[in-house]
From TrEMBL:
InterPro entries, A to Z: DUF2975
Protein name: DUF2975 domain-containing protein
Domain of life where this protein originates: Bacteria
Keywords in alphabetical order: Membrane, Transmembrane, Transmembrane helix
Segments passing through the bilayer: 20-40, 100-120
Keyword Membrane: yes
A Pfam family assignment: DUF2975
Highest classification ranks of the organism: Bacteria, Pseudomonadati, Bacteroidota, Cytophagia, Cytophagales
Length: 218
């Protein structure tokens, strides 16, 4: 079984990458179509994965409790309670600036995923056991690295603008235990994966050089 595993693992992974590629494409088309219908004020109803109002889009928000101080009990042993933020969904019209920004964030993520699976699919289709190191594969790995770095940069800018544009909406909301209310966004992204792929591309290029040297020697 162990000797046969290399022969079926590669084609299996290749088929899975192709499957995920078409799946992400389908989700991208569905998301774009639903967003366009909402922008046209068509009564599309809620998204399949959420409970949104027609022509509205959800923005993740968080609010802190009235006090963020740690609560200590008087009994023995002492217990400590640290209040955490609460989260929810703020539904805004999709034609508003925050709504458009959330749609763009979704499109950026889906387009990046589709592009990434496309490059992976091309890599698996072009790799050969006899000649595993190819310049085209190195270029695709480099493209994937810059793709993830670009996604991180674009999402960071969009989230910062979203945070700024959503602040006026919070003036209309009052919560009994509210200390502050803000967009619940994480300023992160696949930048680390992008750097790893760029480093891997350099190692791969070194493998190409060694392969060429070996062929010339033979």
């Amino acid at each position: 079984m162990e000797t046969n595993s290399p022969y079926w693992v590669f084609p299996t992974v290749k088929r899975l990458v192709t499957l995920f590629y078409y799946l992400v494409l389908a989700v991208l088309v569905l998301f774009a179509a639903m967003s366009c219908l909402k922008l046209l004020n068509a009564q599309t109803g809620p998204f399949p994965l959420g409970q949104e109002q027609p022509n509205y889009i959800s923005i993740p928000v968080a609010w802190a409790p009235a006090s963020d101080k740690t609560i200590t009990t008087t009994g023995q042993p002492q217990l400590f309670l640290t209040p955490q933020k609460q989260t929810g969904q703020l539904q805004v019209p999709i034609r508003s600036v925050p709504g458009l920004l959330m749609s763009l964030l979704g499109l950026v993520g889906l387009v990046t995923a589709a592009w990434m699976f496309f490059l992976l699919r091309q890599i698996f289709r072009s790799v050969h056991i006899q000649s595993p190191f190819q310049a085209a594969i190195a270029r695709r790995i480099t493209t994937m690295g810059f793709l993830f770095l670009g996604q991180t940069t674009v999402e960071l800018l969009l989230k910062l603008v979203l945070w700024h544009q959503t602040r006026p909406y919070f003036g209309q909301i009052r919560l009994a235990s509210q200390a502050w209310l803000s967009v619940d966004i994480q300023l992160n992204g696949p930048w680390l994966l992008g750097l790893i792929l760029l480093a891997l591309a350099q190692v791969y290029r070194r493998g190409i050089e060694l392969q060429l040297e070996n062929e010339l020697t033979v």
